[in-house]
Design goal:
The chain has helices spanning 17-28, 40-54, 69-83, 101-123, 150-173, 198-201, 208-217, 223-235; strands spanning 8-12, 32-37, 59-63, 88-91, 132-137, 177-184, 243-247, 250-253. It is α/β, with parallel strands linked by helices. The chain has an 8-stranded mixed sheet with strand order 3-2-1-4-5-6-7-8, sandwiched between helices. Helix 1 packs across helix 8, helix 3 packs parallel to helix 4 and helix 4 (101-123) runs parallel beside helix 5 (150-173). The longest helix has 24 residues, at 150-173. The radius of gyration is 18 Å and the shape is globular.
Length: 267
């Protein structure tokens, strides 16, 4: 198991919700944590709160929009200047917005790719890096479709596929970097309210009853439960390319088919 004492972690979307929970559990296990978020006020307040709780200068906040290549790179360089290294990278920033769907793709998928490549470039052994682990936050919607949110579904499928492919590439090329993906069901965070807002759901607002029935079937998890799952993906060094689903009946590693099964059709 990877010991986190003295390790440096970066968490995106860290100012609230899952990101805040991830930062806390990493701090509790001995890591230093760089918080990245677009919300400067909440981020700075959280920095103060966490340093009071876990020790002075254990955490630092950096304002960054993960959809901006320049802002993300600048923030990463500031993290390296402050902490000297990065060992753990959690790409967690995400939104639900079916109305402005290109923004959703830009944050949920492009932002994950951007953060993963920044971390990989720093960590991989062929560049003189020390190795490390990247955990990307997807969703159960990355394993099975969420009909009221097709774009959100697409981005989360993309995060799952990208992470698994890169994990295999890292293993083959001996980068020394593990890449895992976290797929929780609904989580009790501010993001969950997006499903009820027309400005976020757009043309799919008429499916709000369907969404409510799904939420009854899959009641929202607490942030702390998902944070424990993240910790497993970070610490267990046997896991690379792992996809951990987290729902009310517990957490489990997802098995993917080795071959695609087909039902023959006449063309």
């Amino acid at each position: 198991m990877m010991a986190l004492q003295g390790k440096v972690a970066v968490v995106t979307g860290a100012a609230q919700g899952l990101g805040k929970g991830f930062a806390e559990i990493l701090l509790q296990n001995g890591a230093k944590v760089a918080l990245l978020d677009i919300n400067e006020k909440a981020g700075k307040e959280l920095e103060t709160q966490l340093n009071e709780a876990y020790g002075a200068d254990r955490t630092h906040f950096y304002a960054a929009d993960v959809s901006s290549d320049q802002q993300f790179k600048d923030a990463f360089q500031k993290v390296l200047s402050k902490f000297g290294q990065v060992d753990i990278f959690c790409n967690n920033a995400g939104i639900i917005n079916e109305k402005h769907w290109e923004k959703t793709v830009s944050i949920n998928l492009n932002g994950v790719v951007r953060g993963t490549y920044l971390a990989l470039d720093h960590m991989k052994k062929e560049n003189g890096g020390q190795g490390g682990v990247i955990v990307n936050t997807a969703s159960l919607a990355g394993l099975g479709p969420l009909p009221p949110s097709p774009i959100y579904t697409a981005t989360k499928y993309g995060v799952v596929g990208f992470s698994r492919a890169l994990a295999a590439a890292s293993e083959w090329a001996k980068y020394g970097v593990r890449v895992n993906v976290l797929c929780p069901t609904f989580v009790r965070t501010p993001l969950i309210d997006s499903f009820n807002l027309e400005e976020q759901t757009g043309q799919f607002i008429g499916l709000s009853d369907f969404t409510r029935s799904l939420m009854e079937k899959f009641p929202a998890l607490e942030v702390e439960e998902v944070a424990k799952a993240l910790l497993l993906l970070v610490k267990d060094e046997s896991l690379n390319g792992a996809c951990l689903a987290v729902a009310n009946d517990g957490a489990g590693l997802v098995s993917f088919p080795k071959e695609i099964s087909k039902t023959p059709v006449s063309l």
